[in-house]
Specification:
With 526 residues, the protein is an alpha/beta fold. The protein is 45% helix and 13% strand.
Amino acid sequence: MTDARSGRVRATRNQQILGDYKERFRRSSTGAHEFLEFLRRSDVGVWRFELDSTPSRWWLNVTLPPHQQGIFGLNREIQVLYTEYEYVEPRALSVIQQRVRKDMRVEPDVAILVSRDSHAKDTARRRAGEMAIIAVNLDEIRAGDSPLLHTLIAQSVATVDHFDVATPVREPSGFYGRQAEIETIANDLKRAVSVGIFGLRKAGKTSLLNALDTLRRDDERNATVRVDVSEIITAEQFRSTVLEGLWAAVRHLPGNEDIHPRLRALTRQGTRRADLPDSATSWIQDLRALLEHVERPVVLIVDEIDQAFPPRSNLDPAEAQSLFSALVQLRSVIQEQDRLALLCAGVDPALFERPLLDGKDNLLYKLVRLVWLTPMTRDEIAEMVRSLGKRMGVRVRGHQEIDALFSHYGGHPLLTRKACSVAVRSRTPETLPFHITSEALEVALKSRDYGGPYDQAADVLASFTEWFPDEAALLRLHFSPDEEERDLALSLLSENPNAMVHSIAYGLCFPDHTARIAAAIESLEQ
């Protein structure tokens, strides 16, 4: 807009508002002014200023100049959290991730954290696989020792390997695919239908539980309790963990802040009574009393459910049997009402698949709807590789590289990531954007590095062999170089078409019995 008298271009209303907020931010501290000067020297545009509900924290939206957008592939606005903290707590990174997840205008894979914490870079690196958070040190900016922003971004994305992460995904920004499974399971849980998720080692079972847990916790009207059986030593600890978790979840529901149900196993503060030696005879009554105060089904999430199956458990035999009995007690609550659903995960579904246990009826038989967590689809793998690569300044141009990854690893997320990690090891800040070529990928597929994709593929098969020895033996015959052994496998399959049911359900093979995770099948020869 041009002023008719002076001929000068007048700011629009939005520009005036932006300018006002910019001045408020500039006056908020000396460091704010110097940070704005740093952005100006970096040729970075600033499009939004917002004072956070927490004092002394500001949110900014910035954009890189066009030539740098091309280098890093960052064409949207980038979220910035400005603080003057001398120590950044890890939860600040979660705050950034949550905000980015809800704002479609900003880059989903990259954000910037400004602080005076000299260790913020190390803290941000611990979020590898979830988001590239660029740590900018305010003290270095004020001292004139900080490189420009594009250099800081290059240094960060070239030194953090977002592919080489083997821990379960905690944040939605690090979770890929499985949308169909999430939607179906979430709807089941709303109807109090219990679900068991079973799949190969490192196939993403715990990550899927995390995604469903986060989805439920986004709505304050949901109550969710979570237990990891691998952290449980005794059945009493399991019962107490469930009860205390349910008490806290129910009390957290809107309108329930002042309820005080009379419970036998817990105190009025929701902790296990110290004078109660064993809650086995009372905890189910307490569960029912707490469930009277919910309107929606409560979901009990149990990871590593295999440990509750006595023949498979690493617990003391007596404790394993007691834990199994605790689940049988839960069955009565799950089946008699629509206020509690079980969501569990593991490798071996025998707990719910076998009708008999030691010659007796298995009372957990078919308690849950079984969901087989097969590897990811080709499109899901492509999305994962390209998104994680973007956080590292890495690009995958063509479909040949994605096809090679899928044909070798069949969509197994960990194996695919491990191979990509090997393929990008030579990247440096100077080589960005770094392209994964077919040649680099071929080297990665042949790598025999310790802990690399080859080792991990062998571990996947070893785990499957441990849980399903008969099927693993049939796999060896079916893929044997000896023609007679292959014919024997065909004969056995003709007699029992379901003899390789878990091999297919878990994604080692396609339904036509051809190899899906070729890298794992190759290790059969070892």
